[in-house]
Amino acid sequence: MRLELRGITKRFGAFTANDAIDLVVEPGQIHAILGENGAGKSTLMNVLYGLYTPEEGEIVVDGVPRTFAGPGDAMAAGIGMVHQHFMLVPVFTVAENVVLGQEPMARGLIDAGSAATVVRETAESLGFHIDPNALVGDLPVGVQQRVEIVKALSRKAELLILDEPTAVLTPQETDELIEIMRTLAASGTSILFITHKLREIRAVADTITIIRHGRVVGTAEPTTPETELASLMVGRSVSLGVDRAPAQPGEPGLAVRGLVVRDAHGVPVVDDVSFDVARGEIVAVAGVQGNGQTELVEAILGVTTPEHGSIELAGRPIDGLGVRDRLDAGLAFIPEDRSTDGVVGEFSIVENLVLDRVGAAPVSRGGALDVAYLRRNAAERVAEFDVRTTSIDREVGTLSGGNQQKVVLARELSRDLSVLVASQPTRGVDVGSIEFLHRRIVAERDKGAAVLIVSTELDEVLALGDRIAVMCGGRLVGIVPGGVSRDVLGLMMTGMPPEEAARQAAEHHTLLGEADLAAELQAPDGEPAVVQDGAVVQDAAVVQDASHESEEQR
């Protein structure tokens, strides 16, 4: 399919989300759309998929102008879309999801055999296997994404829109998706690839279109350096690295021991997790979303009560304290969903900056809010944290995602703290804001705070973590040094122990010697790894046990 967008303009009141956008996608081309948060990428895709009607411009498919009144029209024209948040029914089988809305019928009933055949034939054409009878809710997220692709292609999609497709994937699953994209393109399927991850764009795209403030500001080749792509996105030079000195760990800041949290069905979602974060260091928790990270953070904050285990803040047990008391004890918290848990969208910047301090001096005096202090505080924080706004009285909900996150960060870092817990601190934030937020988080570490970062962004984990803890299935798989390879981390994110992950990663990097392998590892208790006869084990005791076991077997 050859797709051409001509002068697409979409307005919401006085706001122009897409301003005369021109775009051409050739048959079999992987065309990447790059732009910071709020640049208009999603709006443009929603126009193409029939969810929005543009005020101006036209969509041309294979030389024929088309008008889409809804997604059904787009699908009929051969356009499919895989959303960032999968549109699947968890309690349905793979086959039921794939044919949903277009069910093959036989004698007045759904023909399950025909549905299963559709899944098998489409999946095999891409070189992978999916059980048509498996419940979608039981599948890993990487396989669920494949189901979405099969669903789109089974409906004869000739152009596939992939919206942030790697957001919930491990590095290995991301590599597999890239291979699937290449296979599709080789077979003639056109792909529109929406992502903010520069490395992935350069790995798979044939051409790149950059959008800024609703306009196309340029095109680029995949060989373009990442720093240049980032500069095009935000309109200024951006540093993609995090400039930080080595950590200087000090006294214990946060200690978690044997933590167990169960969900409403009694299933352990945090399963016997223990770790420490020292003052002056950043421990980053890596893992695919949904492996217990959210519940771990909620237990630390006091939102949920663990079944077992203990938590200490600067050497003081806080298990019996509520959220308010934990914050007063020196815990600062950046939630993963700022719109739900971080800000009140209808409140002003002034009000949001003191949400967790109302009722105490200096915010309140004599039982009433000190308005002069509130406005002075807001003006200072807006300047310090570079919040882009026309007024401190502006509703926070009208700010961009990056500026909303800066408001949250400004509130949490503007008081005495000993521990900072930041969950997905840069989710939905543009490259320029990420640079600023990372710099402020490192500054808190250097001032002596213990920092716990939870992120599904592997680049962020590697950029910030002095040590990296990996979670899978609610358990702590292991803790490794910050300089560990992406391959090792990716394998650990599937549940593989650190010693086995390093061994398998080393098979793909045969130039690594035993000393290098050992340096890449650290057991969950913080002890260094040991390498013996080319095999990596967790510690010396394991080496000894393995030796005894082999003698018994002989």
UniProtKB/TrEMBL annotation:
SUPFAM superfamilies: P-loop containing nucleoside triphosphate hydrolases. It is found in: Cell membrane. CDD domains: ABC_Carb_Monos_I, ABC_Carb_Monos_II. It holds the Pfam family ABC_tran. GO terms for molecular function: ATP binding; ATP hydrolysis activity. PROSITE patterns: ABC_TRANSPORTER_1, ABC_TRANSPORTER_2. One of its GO terms (cellular component) is plasma membrane. The keyword Isomerase does not apply. Residues 3-238, 254-498 form the ABC transporter domain. It is a peripheral membrane protein. Coiled coil: none annotated. PANTHER family: CARBOHYDRATE TRANSPORT ATP-BINDING PROTEIN MG119-RELATED, GUANOSINE IMPORT ATP-BINDING PROTEIN NUPO. This is ABC transporter ATP-binding protein.
